[in-house]
What we know:
seven-stranded mixed sheet, mainly beta
Amino acid sequence: QVQLVESGGGLVQPGGSLRLSCAAPERIFSINDMGWYRQAPGKQRELVANTTRGGTTNYADSVNGRFTISRDNVKNTMALQMNNLKPEDTAVYYCHAACWATVARGAYRYLEVWGQGTLVTVSS
């Protein structure tokens, strides 16, 4: 199975902070674009932030100035620092990557892979 692993979600009060982490397994050996998506109850999944291999970043208007995305190309990890959280940020957050991965012995493919999601709840 080729899957990313998210961590760091939880319950936080409005105005608080959380840091989400995303780790890629060893079989993923080269990541191009990498980003975070979220899906709130009753809503469609939306892009929160993404980053290219070269470090260029892009943020949704709703989180710009509050969230910061970062990546480590050596360890194939990514983080999302979320500050000044609002109740509207409540959602399941998913890590996503477009990457080269080993899928079988001597075989590799360019894939889009996802994590299982981590729940962020912002409430008093």
